[in-house]
Write a structure and sequence with these properties.
This protein has helices at residues 3-14, 27-40, 43-48, 57-72, 85-98, 144-152, 155-165, 179-182, 191-209, 213-219, 221-227, 240-251, and strands at 74-81, 100-101, 107-115, 121-131, 134-137, 141-142, 167-169, 174-176, 184-185, 256-266, 269-277, 283-293, 296-307. By secondary structure, it is an alpha+beta fold.
Amino acid sequence: MNILRLILPLLASLLVVFSCVGATSTPDALAKALQRALDSGDFKAAAALADLANAPAEVHFALLGNVYECSTDAKCTVATAPIDAAFRQQLADDAKQLGAEAPAAEGLIVVTSKSKDGSGSGTLQMPYAKIDGAYKLASLQLGATEIARRRATSGEQLLKDMFAGGIYDNATGTRRTDWASAATQLPTDGGQAGAELVRQTSAMAKAVDAKDPDKAMAAGGQWAKVVFADKDYDGKPIAREQRQKKLYVQSLRMLRDVKVTGGYELGDDAALIVEARDGIGWTERGAVLMTRNGDAWDVSGKQLIAYPN
């Protein structure tokens, strides 16, 4: 699967500013620095190019997911390009939607990827600007008002939002919007579903800290078995180092230190109210939907907000 194609809209909207003292004095220098980071698969080098202090976990994942993709499954080429009115308008529209400010972009960094197995290709465009004397990739930044709104939003409200949007019912094939009246309230620990969510996330956090993709496969349900598998779809072994890189990238947006404070259960689904932190240390709050298949519970949906501590 080509990560570039999946994350292009997110990265174009949210990717925060890159910075590399003395190395990005021109747009071409910025492009070359990014090219080296992608070619070498060096996460630390890529992170050193970026000012990620106020960037959400999804932005960290988008940036370093490209490093993973371009150093394993794809050949990537970085170049500069002019910015057009359509791209500026898209930035402005995204900023309005997110309660953020659009950067005063001067041009674009373009990453073109081609899968090594010939299965696909993609193009990623990212704006750049001269900031503090250096050319950097520029991003939308959440304003103080938006951060304050997120801090003030409760997990209970986000659970209500999940209910209002409807929860897919496997039995009927429709989205049920009557959870508030039809579901059974769970104890504050979330019952069996809550215990399983805490167990899975705790086990996954230990696997991440140990850089052990085998433990990650065993920790996180069906999703983890697929994502961190030791063989590809054709049965060919995947190098442990590559699996470790994938584990690191995925860990950036995983929940850790999960505390369940309540929830509701209806049939084989349980909607839990949680507070946790993600892989970059931000607080995450809201609702997590767990679905039971036999005796096993897996995460099947989320309605979360994130903000810096």
